[in-house]
Amino acid sequence: MPTVDDVLAQVGEFHLFQKQTFLLLALLSAAMPPIYVGIVFLGFTPEHHCRPSPGAAQLSRRCGWSPAEELNLTVPGPGPAGEAFPRRCRSYQVAWNGSGLGCADPLAGLAADRSLLPLGPCGHGWAYDTPGSSIVTEFNLVCADAWMLDLVQVAVNLGFFLGSVGIGYVADRFGRKPCLLLTILVNATAGVLMAVAPTYPWVLLFRLVQGLVSKVGWLIGYILITELVGLSYRRTVGICYQAAFSVGLLALAGAAYVLPHWRWLQFAVTVPNFCFLLYYWCVPESPRWLLSQHRHAEATQVLRLIARRNGQAVPAALQCLRAEEEAGEKPNPSFLDLVRTPQIRKHTLVLMYNW
To answer: What are the distances in angstroms from CA 270 to CA 87, 128, 184, 221, 278?
Structure first.
């Protein structure tokens, strides 16, 4: 009795149908970088300094200072060895509305050495030297709150971990295609909601949701394309599928250059994901999974479609198709399978080390 690999060897292991499906799923892989490394652009931290107090701003207007003069006369300079922390996170704690302050050097009358003047946290926010915006500039994730930017990426990686843990069971239980479409929908919706999130906690929540489903969707796409091609092409399409991720990195850099405002960038890299829902009509379910669920009629229908699109005759042995597993009952996989034999245990440890 023939297996799926036997049938694909006759109708085409990587012909027109598989090439079209691969290109479609490669687009899905190329759309992954904005979630994986998007924080580089969404959370860009520009040069910044404490915003002058109302008294200092009033003195600047009275004296007619330029922005550069206001910065040099009212904001602490770099610390020892060029350290920028005092300028970024400290401000002079002086009474700027005092009548004794002059325009030439307003702090000279208070201390001969500026380093002796008391410093305190920025009490009036920050000014950022950038024409655009980022999560950092909008929610002031600098100085004492700089750790909150790292928390955004922690949420993504936590989502990756939790989602990846259950991907095997979910894809085997409900099928590759339904899970793929569901993760696409949730990922795109969460991405748009993040683009309009009014506060930092909402950004964190929607980024976590994207992490939960995006890596899962990427992995399902990988599984699906490798199960639709013949054995001799499986490794090649797997590598090329991951190479599409690198192409997505280049596209992300270009999009970030054109769109310096983080909300527009997030919106631009998210909305195209809704187009992937059209895969409902373009990408079939894995015939291997259908056979593992004893849905032989549907598996046969998918293989007939592949044969027709590849311009090949339908093999006569298609009606006798069987799954690769010859056991009388469906296998019951568990996490112990990753370490059950010396060979698979070695592969598991190697992959864990690589990641």
So the answer is: 36, 26, 10, 18, 15
3-state helix, strand, coil in the chain (%, to 5): 65, 5, 30
20-22-23 Cα angle (round to 5): 65
Q: Where are the domains of the chain?
A: 4-42+145-244+270-327, 48-129
**Within 10 A of 297 (CB to CB), how many other CB atoms are there?**
8
Model pLDDT for residues 99-109, shown as the tens digit of each residue: 567 777 777 76
Tokens of 316: 């006569």
Contact between residue 212 and residue 163 where contact means Cβ atoms under 8 Å apart: yes
Give the angle subtended at the CA of 337 by the CAs of 332 and 341, to the nearest 5°. 135
Instruction: Tell me the three state secondary structure of residue 127.
Output: strand
Which pairing describes strands 90-92 and 119-121: parallel, antiparallel, or unpaired? antiparallel
| Per-residue b or e along 57-75, where b marks 16 or more CB atoms closer than 10 Å to that residue's CB | bebbeeeebeeeebbebbb
Residue 140: DSSP 8-state: T
pTM for the model: 0.85
Q: Selecting from 3.90.79.10, 1.20.1250.20, 3.10.20.30, 1.10.150.20, what CATH number does the domain 4-42+145-244+270-327 have?
A: 1.20.1250.20
The pair of three-digit structure tokens given for residue 222, joined into one six-digit string: 């990988």
Which H helix or E strand runs over 121? strand 119-121
Contacts of 160 (CB under 8 A, 6+ apart): 211, 214, 215
List pLDDT tens digits, range 128-175. Answer: 988 899 999 999 999 889 999 999 999 999 999 998 888 878 888 899
Distance CA 290, CA 297 (A): 9
